[in-house]
Amino acid sequence: MNTSLNGNVEGKRVGLIVPSTNTVMEPDLYRNLPKGTTVHTSRMLLEGSVTIEAEELMLDVYLPECARQIGTLMPDVVVFGCTSAGALRGPAYEQELAGEISKATGAPTITIMGAVVDELKRLGVKSVAVLTPYSEEINDTIKESLESSGFTVPYINGMDVKGAFNIAAVSPDEIIRYAEEQLKGVESDCLFVSCANLKSVDVLEELRVAAGRPVVTSNQAVLEGVKRTINIAD
C-alpha cells in the first residue's frame, strides 16, 4: 500500500495509457476496482479512425512521453490500454513494449493482449472467435497476434466503425445483438470481444448467454490482470 504524508494508508494507484479518443476504459476501471483504488491517465493522440498508420504514431511518437508522465506519479501498476496497438507488431514486440513502459514508470505493466491471453489460458481454451469494432486490416493484426500466442481463430469480424471516438457510441444492446448475429454457426471454445473503448464489461453475463460460450473482453481481462498484479480483491 502507498502511505500518505500524514501516515494514513492510501489505495493503489493505477497508471493508464490510452488513445485520446477513449472514453470507456477509465469508467470501467473505476466502477470495477475496489474503493480507494485510483486511476491516473495519460493520453496518446489519436485522430480520425483506428488505422495502422495512426497506431504506429501512437506507439512511436506519443507513447514514450505518456510513459514518462505516468512514472512521475509513482504508480503501483501501469496499463497500456489499447488492444489493437498492442497487437499491431505481435506478442514479442508487445512484451518488449511492456518492458519499456515498466522501465519508464518503475511499475509492472499490463498490456491488453497480454491480459487477454492470460484469461484465455486460464479458461483452458484453444479456439477463439473474435468480434471487434475495427476494420479488416486491424482485425488481421488481432488474429495474427492470437495465433502467434497459440490459439486458433476460426472466425473474426469487425463492425468497421468510422472514427475511433464513435466506438464508444456503440450501445451494449448493439454489442449483444452483434454477437448473436455473427456467431450463428460459428464453433469456438470462447468469444473475445476486442477494444478498450467498447462498452462490453457491463453486459458480460448477457454476452455469455448470447454467445453460448465463455466470453473475454479487453477491459474485463485488464481488470483481472490489475487485481492479480497488485493483490487486490473485490
Reconstruct the topology from this structure.
Layout: E1 13-19, H1 25-32, E2 38-44, H2 52-71, E3 77-80, H3 83-87, H4 91-105, E4 109-111, H5 112-123, E5 128-132, H6 136-148, E6 156-158, H7 172-182, E7 190-193, H8 204-211, E8 215-217, H9 218-229
Helix pairs in contact: 2-4, 5-9, 7-8
Architecture overview:
44% of the residues lie in helices and 15% in strands. Helix 2 packs parallel to helix 4. 45% of the residues are buried. It has helices at 25-32, 52-71, 83-87, 91-105, 112-123, 136-148, 172-182, 204-211, 218-229, and strands spanning 13-19, 38-44, 77-80, 109-111, 128-132, 156-158, 190-193, 215-217. Helix 6 (136-148) links the parallel strand 5 (128-132) and strand 6 (156-158). The protein has nine helices and eight strands. It folds into two domains: 13-111 and 221-229, Rossmann fold (3-Layer(aba) Sandwich), CATH 3.40.50.12500; 114-218, Rossmann fold (3-Layer(aba) Sandwich). The chain has 234 residues and is α/β, with parallel strands linked by helices. It starts with 12 loop residues before the first strand and ends in a 5-residue tail after the last helix. The strands form two sheets. Strands 2-1-3-4 form a four-stranded parallel β-sheet, sandwiched between helices. A four-stranded parallel β-sheet has the order 6-5-7-8, with helices on both faces.
